[in-house]
């Protein structure tokens, strides 16, 4: 019995060569760009390759280059965080452009699971690893990844060996306050998290810079550190809003905290945005578009971070990038309906 019955044969270099009337070596050089080929011949080769549906055999390619054309993305909770699926999408698109496969592993922030994930990636001989985090924080790259090309996504490191891509957190805080100040707000609260991580430090720095830029003195009592979830947002809002001289606007560490601020404001009969304006961070659309009124928020560049990290990884693996690069990406303010001028 013929086991290949019904199977579609792979179009190879020899098929392309026969269609064009040149040698397989010429086709190989034309496709790889490794050597100069007559422009007309190269155009005919590329046209025939596309017409015939030619694609390189990854097994043969891997044998020649000692690469597997597989990339790992190892995260803490990225894969189970709705808005961060964009990071995986960006990484996947970049991997496909390099004719490679992306393996995504999530440790759920459990050390044993992370170590198991690293062993899995090493056993698959991945060409490199994107080491990702849910929010911008400084990390220590596990020693188990020694000898593997690593690029950090939404994370940074004091180790200069590692390239990294992170959002501009100072810019996030600055843009939020500029937006609120443009509506006339002068008394602006800030809900943050108690952890001293780049995301919280940067956003608070931007908050303070934005106030200074607007000629507003910082009132330390308007900065409240709680957990970065809805419960934390409710707790912070109760402290900020149950006071005689309450803020007319609140900048929240993230959209989850903003949802808690909405809930606390409604508990005491305040209307958004007429009594208090709100700005979040993340553009977590399960929240930002579901809240009434819809939330003005600052979107993080998750797709761009994932795409850049994988592209940078291939530059390292291919020897095109020798040194590490630390890159910050600007973020985008999405204006919806949770900000209005102060009612007073």
Automatic annotation (TrEMBL):
All residue ranges annotated as the HTH lacI-type domain in the record: 11-65
Q: One GO molecular-function annotation for this sequence?
A: transcription cis-regulatory region binding
Record keywords: Transmembrane included? no
Superkingdom of origin organism: Bacteria
Query: Which CDD domains has this protein been placed in?
Result: HTH_LacI, PBP1_sucrose_transcription_regulator
State the UniProt keywords alphabetically: DNA-binding, Repressor, Transcription, Transcription regulation
Pfam families from the entry?
A: LacI (PF00356), Peripla_BP_3 (PF13377)
Q: What protein name does the entry list? A: Transcriptional regulator, LacI family
